[in-house]
């Protein structure tokens, strides 16, 4: 993993004593040569004709929809409403202008058990977590005005919505009773660091000198650099047999160590994501919402083995050869600005789900969240569960429903549910890791169905 014990024990010697040159800024300064876009000036819109939705077969509900503070919303209340509400936060929508609403996957489970739910489109697109937090929180108030004040309110979401969920739990703990982030970006900007890490390490291993490496994607990177990387590293198209060159195999193990260490299904995961990740180098370091460049790889350490307490000469040479990105100081501000940090300071019960083979929002996002909660003496309010899948948010309905039901029992009964020990490297590397909460068949998993 990056930025944990390793960064503290050897990172200082690597970065600050001269064995690795101090970080070079992205092209165009620190990534903020372009003026940061003002989300409020972009003509986002809601197509209100798409907001109405039908009831599920056999479940009578009252349904409401509309636009509130520039965001579309849907609300559904079962006839047997138990008085409790679940707010759902959707994932990243890209940078298009149309704002859309998603129903929660566990909609049927929620309604059958008497829960109302509400979901917002947010009033912006892009990776605008801060606005997603504000709009989802505002929807809770809108629900109070339309339906009535719930006796309990839960928050949940996928991917960027998991990031939103975690931030809401910290910023508005008094407003919510429990939280369920799923496949969440709970390491916040560390995700963007990883995307950059992967691409600059790939460039170095492909023989591109530090002076010619790119930290910002452009047309030349896409059309010339990426094909060079693919050829030099033997990165075939997804689904084709692996023919990684020795340098390609080094990229694979570096990626494993950056994203959580040795663990089940990593071979399948790398095969699935190796090309995709070459397209994740940012086109702008502020990601369109921050005050400046948020990417910081000055404390990234790239390793070819599992010895996280030392660095070999070969590893040192790689670390010396990689261009580094420096974040802008103004991006470190706390609160609901830019890309909000997840500190692990929530004051309500939280169950976190992640798939072990996700490399779009990798498993180490969940590990970072646990480390931060522990650093704040808050580990008793965070339970983590791992599902054996390589898809991003690759959970099935049963896995999500069980997590929600166990969260509710925790809130109502006060008994913390069980979870996985995701910080112990031996536990994570065990071939059985993740089986306890996995339900159903994955054809690429040698253990197949577990429960």
What are the key terms here?
451 residues, alpha/beta, Rossmann fold, 2 domains, two-stranded parallel ribbon, 10 strands, 31% helix, disordered N terminus
What features would you describe in this structure?
It comes from Mesobacillus maritimus. This is Alpha/beta hydrolase. Residues 1-23 form the signal peptide. The chain has 451 residues and is α/β, with parallel strands linked by helices. The protein folds into two domains: 5-30 and 190-332, no CATH class; 45-188 and 347-429, Alpha/Beta hydrolase fold, catalytic domain (Rossmann fold, 3-Layer(aba) Sandwich), CATH 3.40.50.1820. The protein is 31% helix and 12% strand. The protein contains 13 helices and ten strands. The chain has helices spanning 5-9, 11-16, 107-112, 129-146, 160-171, 190-205, 219-233, 246-258, 266-273, 313-321, 364-375, 397-413, 425-429; strands spanning 45-46, 61-68, 71-78, 84-89, 98-99, 116-120, 152-158, 178-182, 350-355, 382-387. The chain has an eight-stranded mixed beta sheet with strand order 2-3-6-4-7-8-9-10, sandwiched between helices. The longest helix is centred in the first third of the chain and has 18 residues, at 129-146. It is globular and about 65 Å long.
Topology, element by element:
Blueprint: H1 5-9, H2 11-16, E1 45-46, E2 61-68, E3 71-78, E4 84-89, E5 98-99, H3 107-112, E6 116-120, H4 129-146, E7 152-158, H5 160-171, E8 178-182, H6 190-205, H7 219-233, H8 246-258, H9 266-273, H10 313-321, E9 350-355, H11 364-375, E10 382-387, H12 397-413, H13 425-429
Parallel strand pairs: 1-5, 4-6, 4-7, 7-8, 8-9, 9-10
Antiparallel strand pairs: 2-3, 3-6
Helix pairs in contact: 4-5, 6-8
């Amino acid at each position: 993993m990056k930025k944990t014990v390793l960064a503290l024990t050897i990172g200082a010697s690597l970065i600050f004593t001269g064995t690795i040159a101090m970080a070079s800024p992205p092209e165009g300064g620190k990534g903020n040569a372009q003026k940061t876009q003002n989300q409020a000036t972009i003509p986002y819109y809601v197509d209100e004709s798409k907001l109405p939705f039908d009831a599920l077969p056999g479940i009578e509900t009252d349904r409401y929809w509309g636009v509130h503070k520039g965001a579309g919303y849907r609300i559904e209340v079962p006839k047997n409403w138990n008085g409790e509400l679940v707010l759902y936060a959707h994932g990243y929508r890209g940078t298009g202008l149309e704002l859309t609403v998603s129903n929660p996957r566990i909609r049927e489970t929620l309604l059958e058990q008497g829960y109302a739910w509400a979901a917002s489109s947010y009033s912006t697109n892009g990776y605008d977590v801060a606005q997603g937090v504000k709009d989802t929180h505002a929807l809770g108030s809108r629900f109070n005005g339309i339906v009535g004040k719930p006796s309990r309110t839960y928050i949940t979401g996928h991917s960027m919505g998991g990031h939103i969920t975690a931030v809401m739990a910290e910023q508005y703990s008094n407003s919510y009773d429990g939280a369920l982030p799923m496949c969440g970006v709970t390491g916040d900007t560390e995700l963007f660091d990883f995307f950059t890490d992967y691409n600059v390490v790939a460039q170095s291993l492909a023989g591109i000198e530090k002076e010619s490496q790119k930290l910002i994607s452009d047309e030349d990177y896409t059309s010339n650099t990426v094909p060079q990387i693919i050829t030099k590293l033997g990165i075939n198209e997804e689904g084709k047999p692996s023919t990684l060159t020795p340098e390609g195999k080094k990229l694979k193990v570096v990626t494993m160590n950056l994203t959580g260490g040795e663990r089940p299904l990593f071979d399948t995961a790398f095969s699935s994501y190796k090309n995709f990740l070459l397209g994740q180098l940012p086109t702008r370091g502020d990601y369109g919402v921050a005050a400046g460049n948020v990417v910081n790889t000055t404390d990234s350490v790239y390793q070819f083995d599992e010895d996280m307490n030392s660095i070999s000469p070969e590893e040192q040479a790689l670390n010396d050869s990689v261009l580094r990105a420096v974040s802008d100081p103004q991006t470190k501000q706390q609160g609901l600005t830019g890309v909000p940090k997840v500190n692990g300071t929530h004051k309500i019960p939280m169950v976190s789900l992640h798939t072990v083979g996700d490399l779009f929002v990798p498993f180490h996002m969940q590990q970072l969240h646990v480390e931060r909660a522990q650093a704040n003496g808050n580990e008793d309010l965070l339970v983590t569960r791992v599902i054996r899948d390589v898809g991003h948010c690759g959970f099935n309905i049963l896995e999500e429903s069980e997590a929600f039901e166990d969260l509710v029992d925790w809130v109502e009964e006060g008994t913390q549910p069980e979870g996985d020990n995701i910080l112990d490297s031996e536990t994570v590397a065990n071939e059985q890791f993740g089986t306890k909460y996995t339900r159903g068949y994955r054809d690429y998993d040698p253990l197949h169905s577990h429960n």
